[in-house]
Design brief:
mainly beta, Jelly Rolls, 2 domains, 51% strand
Amino acid sequence: MLGGILDSKLSKTSLAIISNKEVIAINQDSLSKQAQLVRRYTEEEWDIWLGDLSGSRRVVGIANWRNQARSVSVNLTSLGITSANVRDVWAAKDTGAQSGTQTVSLAPHELKLWVLSNITTAAVPSTIYYPAASGTLAGSSSTAACSSGDCLPVGKKVGNIGQGASVTLKNIAVKSAGKKTVGVDFINYDYAFGTAWEWGTNTRNMTITVNGGTAKRWAFPLSGEDWQETGRLTIELDGFSAGSGNQVVFKNFGNAYAPDLVGLEVFE
């Protein structure tokens, strides 16, 4: 269903967007699986979404939240994709087999859509899991046990991460120095139902610092249907040192509460 002004005020450009058959086919795909947010770059203002389609295909959405055109780099390998044939949906063009890092040009507020086929995948190995409840807590931060089957994968979370509070995870081991892909397990049910038509927001923000470097802000979406259902935000964090002495600090942003924290996993 789509609501809009369907008279002479509807431009040809708008009509072409809402009637694009390839885009409609993605929405109506028989597999009926929703795409997921797989990479967020909050301060840089762009996201990557990934979903499964019928016929062993996948859809990739690359969203530019800025008012300006820009180019971004998309590393297919970090998404678990070794190679794939790429169909640029809006351009209605096959770009052939692609692998590794791709440079993507985006118009202001553009959502680039790719359909991947003939996909070769590879697992992205991870280190051990680091539960937030095993970290060092400061300020108002507090550990809470969850009901059976909740706050996965560890059954505990750290909440009340307000102003002046923090969670510090120590002795995180990586094989090599530099930037790492990190999965942050969190819980956020701060939905903006009461203000959805004004200036409400469903997100909670958190800053993350690696080894005393510059704190970076990340916006966490809703994770599930209550305050015990875990979601995962996969991000890239820089500043790791080779070995097991790494430290990651989580804090709130501004005066608002951060999402509850379950734990993290490092991929390399």
